Amino acid sequence: MTALRMKDTFRRGDAVTLTVEGRCVMAHRGETLAAALLAAGMARLRHSPRDFSPRGAYCFMGVCQECVVRVDGVLRQSCQVPVEDGLVVELKGSL
Amino acid sequence: MTPADLIVVGAGPAGAAAALAASEAGLQVVLLDEAFAPGGQIYRAPPQPLSVAPTARGADDAAGDALRAAVAASAVVWTGGARVWSISGAFRVDAVTAAGSESFTAPRLVAATGAHERLVPFPGWTTPGVIGLAAATILLKSQGMVPGRRTVVAGCGPLLAAVAAKIVAGGGEVAAVVDLAGPGDWLKALPRMASRPDLLRQGLGWALKLGAARVPVLFRHMVTGVSGGETCETVTVAPVDAEGRLTGGRSRMFDVDALAIGHGLVPGCEIPKLLRAAHRFAPEAGGWTPVRDAFGRCSVAGLYAVGDGAAVAGAEPARLSGCLAGLAAAQDAGRLPADVFAREAGAARAALDKALVFAGAINRLMRARPAMVEAIAAETVICRCEDVRRGEIEAAIAAGAREINQLKHFTRCGMGPCQGRMCGETAATLLARHVGSREAAGYWTGRPPLRPVPLADLLGQFDYADIPVPTPAPL
């Protein structure tokens, strides 16, 4: 799953660079981390703790907790985190 | 500790209207929301500096901007980015904000926390790439993104056409719209929907857009499975009857990387539940709803519940119910003369009753279909957080779980970080089959924290060394 940024209908903020699993990912200020990861083709964000099944953002509004990743070492809901230059993201939840 | 006359939690159409009405009547109002700008989900603004190009702005963008301008121009104290995690006493609200851990107190509280989506589990529903219909609207409206390269849009209600049309307009591809309802169900809803010609016109516009893009619409169909390893690759759909039972008709498969799906909305009434207000089960309102008088007063003195967080009815009824509660709070505080209250609340109440006609038609399309829950396979996960399967839930019921909280203790269903918001409806529907009714099955007991919060955010600068340790007594 890869989200596509609409070109003509939205004005985007300055480009920022995140480090996700050691890779550089480009995003724009104003985007949430969950959306930016999806636009980079990163749908799988973590694994569930009991079954170790792949999980990604589901509700994008802070309810489901499925999009939790480590941001600069701290567990955060990526749909609630605005992207910032230099964020270091690990795609793993509480495991 | 910030004292006020009224605290409003949630700044969508309902909460903003409540805050504005109370503020205009002279109350000192604090308005809190998790988002960084007022508007709720329906009028969610793109976070700065992301913005909708002036040529692409629609009616919802204008309505959202008007709401934000009204809050900004008022005396309401707006605190965005506030994650409310505890409410205690009558009333102390604890939130994590940009300033750290903050507390607010007021003798009156309006709960306006909106709805969340119902989703009946199916094989593969936890696969990345499967997102809610409301999630898709957030990506489309506030992030300027189309969810995937090729998407199936499925479930029920007007969001189907809204999401599909926005994906097409945004340059994405919709493989199919899969609607639980049939054309006959929509026709039946039409006379009541005609009470809001503007919304009906908006809906017809979406339908025309989908027709022009030759998007197949499969009526009376549902998604029966998603396959793919790490992400969604194939979505399977099959025909159903009016109650969502498979008819045994031919199934179809779509190769897509995204599925946007939702089966209606459930009131998010965690605050009234936390404060032990009385509730009743009302399927027509989306599920459990706080017992309220005509102005939104709950059974707990000083507590008001408004909008879709109390009873699912849509944006305009939400705004009017918020307005009523704001006026009621002002009157209860002794700030609004009885005649002014009667006049203003009477007008808002009449408008609300009128607006509920449209809402009734939509809610019928988005109603829960228990037959879908009955058909869930034993190995399908019900609770996403804890990976609890239907088979485990049935085993716990067979072992004597007779009420939803007991079921939670037996299985851990609902005990994970989403706190039962995703699985609660399904688990309660499964339990109700054995205990006779949703009333008998009950609802999760409200407990703090309302949302998970990092302990470090609550502690702030407080350190272990700051704990006062008394000197030990001499031996």
What does this structure look like?
The complex is a heterodimer of chains A (95) and B (475). In chain A, 7% of the residues lie in helices and 33% in strands. Chain A is mainly β and 95 residues long. Chain A has one domain (15-90): Ubiquitin-like (UB roll) (Roll), CATH 3.10.20. In chain A, strand 7 (68-71) and strand 8 (74-77) form a beta hairpin. Chain A is globular. The mean pLDDT of chain A is 95. Chain B folds into 3 domains: 2-116 and 266-364, FAD/NAD(P)-binding domain (3-Layer(bba) Sandwich), CATH 3.50.50.60; 119-263, FAD/NAD(P)-binding domain, CATH 3.50.50; 376-441, Arc Repressor Mutant, subunit A. The mean pLDDT of chain B is 95. Chains A and B meet through strand 1, strand 2, helix 1, strand 6 and strand 8 of A and strand 4, strand 11, helix 3 and strand 12 of B.
How would you sum up this structure in a few lines?
By secondary structure, chain A is mainly β. Chain A has one helix at residues 33-39, and strands at 4-5, 10-11, 15-20, 23-28, 46-47, 54-55, 68-71, 74-77, 88-90. A 5-stranded mixed sheet of chain A has the order 4-3-9-7-8, covered by helices on one side.
CATH topology of the largest domain in chain B: FAD/NAD(P)-binding domain
Level-1 CATH class name of chain A: Alpha Beta
Helix and strand composition category of chain A: mainly beta
Shape of chain A from CA axes? globular
Taken from the alpha-carbon principal axes, the silhouette of chain B is globular
Helical percentage of chain A: under 10%
Mean pLDDT of chain A: 95
Q: Main β-sheet of chain B: number of strands, strand sense, barrel status?
A: 5 strands, parallel
Strand content of chain B: 15-25%
Largest interface: A-B, 49 and 57 residues
Distance between the ends of chain A: 23 Å
CATH superfamily of the largest domain in chain B: FAD/NAD(P)-binding domain
Nearest-integer average pLDDT of chain B:
95
Strand residues, percent of chain A:
25-35%
Q: Could you tell me the radius of gyration of chain B in angstroms?
A: 23 Å
The H-level CATH homologous superfamily of chain A, spelled out, is 2Fe-2S iron-sulphur cluster binding domain, sarcosine oxidase, alpha subunit, N-terminal domain
Question: Which stretches of chain B of 5+ consecutive residues score pLDDT under 50?
Answer: none
Give the helix level of chain B as a range of percent.
25-40%
